Amino acid sequence: MSTTLPQRLDSTLAHDIARAMIDGFDRHYRLFRAESARAKHRFETQDWHGQQRAQRERIEFYDLRVKECVTRLEREYHAAQLPMEVWQQIKLFYVGMLVDHRQPELAETFFNSVSTKILHRCYFQNDFIFVRPAVSTEYLEPQDPQTHTSYRSYYPQRENLLSELRRMVRDFGLRAPFEDFERDTQAVYEALLPLFEHDKLRANFQIQVLHSLFYRNKGAYAVGKLINGFQELPFALPILHNDSGKLLIDTLLHGEDDLLMIFSFARAYFMVDMEVPSAYVQFLRSMMPRKPRAEFYNALGLAKQGKTLFYRDFLYHMRHSTDKFRISPGIKGMVMLVFDLPSFPFVFKVIKDFYPPQKDTSREQIRGKYQLVKQHDRVGRMADSLEFAEVGFPRARFNDDLIEEIKKFAPSQIEISDRDGDGTIEVVIKHVYIERRMIPLNIYLQEAFEVLQKNRDDGAAQAQLQRAVIEYGNAIKDLVAANIFPGDMLWKNFGITRHGKVVFYDYDEIEYITDCNFRRVPQARNEDEEMSGDVWYNVAKNDVFPETFGPFLLSNPRVREVFMRHHADLLQADFWQAHKERIAAGHVHDVFPYERERRFVVQRAQLAAHAAAAAP
């Protein structure tokens, strides 16, 4: 790819357009940051519905600001009619304006979004977008370190580690009282000591903690790391409200795996007040080096930047791999056509053009369901998806069976041509969702079944089956708590992550719990009705009969035994109806990205029970 540099930078029009684009981006980030900063007040006042509303609305900010900027450029400058020489100057002026900017990488993505809505697509991949970053984010720090830094550092001695931990928490400036601040920080201190060589403090012993708390659902998280010489210990402190509205530190989370669960792709975006987002991403990546930078930007609510980095990673992977796209293994969906590249840990999902009669839906409705999931609190149980349009892939990398599959089921979504005129035949997919690849739950269970058929006492296979069934039920209960009814609850619509979590990923039938009517199957009035294989009672559009789930889900005796032991309530209409009534009454459930046993309050209760049992 070559870029033609203009001979001179003398167009005042180009300068003014570049300035208008910078102004458009700055307005976007100013509003984005202000909404994120207000999360602190909403947390302090327990305004959970306001927090959910802000979460939904903030997702729309970016597209609104892009639209505003495009409208301005067309109205004031007739930007689409300008010659390419002027657009070359616009980009160079824009780069110059980013040199001292605090969010240059986000501003580059904003430029791409605006310019691709104005220019013809044949220009997208040459002179007029940032395919690679032009401005470095290395060593970027906030403008005024007296008022805001990316992270704070504390340098305790052995004798004052507890008091420095207390100062660290106080420095977040939360304006709600703690239930028992000394007790909670003492619990953090005692949980922390066994995790590092506290009897051998090195010359470089410090605690670094990101300046802003991370707000999501009903929690606020302090995120940082303890450094002792060569040892680094990532940690997070979840801060919650108790039933009386007082604050408490719920637990100490530590190590990369704990933090990866908090920053999972299946959880809602955080609200974080950041002047320099790249500094936050760099800090987080130092603690979780296996996680792509794109997913950190997504987790921080900067999904467009996440898309930009994902696409760069994808192009880089394509250059350094030779395998072919194929139809994804597993049971084919009725609504979505799914394909993947074996060497790349994501799947590509295309909405089919037509569906079986039992699927009463449309392309617009399906896209609406995916948007609902994007805006909702995914509580660690619904995979985030990246949405792309007009994506070009080299035809040579596509399996012929896959091409035929797309032509058969989604002909409106595929174009095969040399669209850029460079001699390379491309497969252009008109609209695609991209999600993290997981092991489909039905395949994961089948693997256990096959082992148990050969050896019914195989301990590992028994544990795999039990873990999968228990996690499946837990996933549904977390979705219920978040006001989501999955609709199609078959095993094939759930996947297992590398951390063993069960995540839902088939969204075309989801509904809000509050929009469903959960009913018991009526008593049969006579023997004919009882013996009938057909539904003999009236069923309205949103009626759900939980007791009918069993025959579809529990045909395997081993699965049924585990399910009924742990999740029999999911087959009872009363369970679902009770949750619906609580949600309708305004209750917002707590959903934790860690096991209940990790909570200090649970550990204290267990200690008290043991002490009571041991007392004479």
Explain this structure to me?
The chain is an alpha+beta fold and 616 residues long. It has 4 domains: 12-119; 151-317, no CATH class; 323-431, no CATH class; 441-585, no CATH class. It is 43% helix and 15% strand. It contains 20 helices and 20 strands. The chain has helices at 12-37, 39-44, 48-77, 84-97, 104-118, 161-170, 181-192, 255-262, 277-287, 293-299, 303-319, 363-375, 400-409, 441-454, 459-481, 527-531, 550-553, 557-567, 573-584, 600-614; strands spanning 151-154, 205-210, 214-216, 219-228, 231-241, 247-249, 253-254, 326-327, 336-340, 346-351, 386-394, 414-417, 426-436, 439-440, 484-485, 494-496, 502-504, 511-512, 517-518, 543-544. Strands 1, 2, 3, 4, 5, 6 and 7 form a 7-stranded antiparallel sheet that branches. β8 (326-327) and β9 (336-340) form a beta hairpin. α1 packs across α4 and α14 packs antiparallel against α15 (459-481). The longest helix has 30 residues, at 48-77. It is globular. It starts with 11 loop residues before the first helix and ends with a helix. The relative contact order is 0.08.
